[in-house]
């Protein structure tokens, strides 16, 4: 089947979900995972992610056939396979992912702004970013922000190119920095493995974001077709990110910063412009990701928010209210107060180290949604009709997911080493 416009958009949206701020932590992660271990972890995550996505697509289609409907969400699938306990688990983990990802956005923006304005402290930059994004969370229509954020993949790729170009002009090099990572092919300890895996999982365990993409891709109606689209997106993103991580590791050495952009010398206009563009992209993306978690909270408290499904995405819109002062503004005091508290929560989490957030969110919540729940639901819901090899594959994926969550929890309890 030749991909049509909807399928090309599906590939782009999947790549956009993968290609984000976490990519700039990959050189740091590869330094801990080792020169061979980094690539192995990245491509293993991509392959296992595709296997899990195949099961999620099959489960989604199975539920929709049973209910004679379309647009089943992750919560719908979890409820059908695991009951209310499964639905509650997806709700809770989705909130954790939403808060964690937006916190990582704020941490990245604050760290980048601090590098651009050395006279400002990290806390001051963080509060400035929070003051900027808070009013955007009060909007009732995110269509404009969604359009602005569509340039996110281009911004990340530009950031990769600028980082590589700047690093090639004044490389630190492996020969100038000696450490125990110097010739390591793999992680030197369980702590290195745990800390290095977090940023990789943060990038590729984005399954909770893909249900709207599955719904909008026309070819997903045919069994296995969406997985073919996902394979293209995951393979392209994997190759680009691996090339970037290895190149930066060669230029900046094993003591590379957790955000490699911060290792670049200051003063060039294009470098400053690239950093500002990345910050702008994340600030526009913040309310979109934030909406996924706060909508769950609002629906449980107010029971008034509804989804309007649009091509290629879901845009949250509030129920009509006579208190709206404009077409795009929300002045409902209850919601503004709740969103203020949720933004404050992301600010509090952003006080953690950037890589600590990636390890906790990516390695725990996202891995659970990507590698643990899909095989568990597949075995529970469709185990009786599975072939032996598919059943064994799901069991192995489940064990791998539980092991990854355990390792990542271990990492969250141990402070990241400062190079």
From TrEMBL:
Transferase is among the record's keywords: no
Subcellular location: Membrane
Annotated ranges, domain Amino acid transporter transmembrane: 9-412
Mode of membrane association: Multi-pass membrane protein
Main location: membrane
PANTHER family: AMINO ACID TRANSPORTER (PTHR22950), AMINO ACID TRANSPORTER TRANSMEMBRANE DOMAIN-CONTAINING PROTEIN (PTHR22950:SF349)
Protein name: SLC38A8 protein
Organism: Symbiodinium pilosum
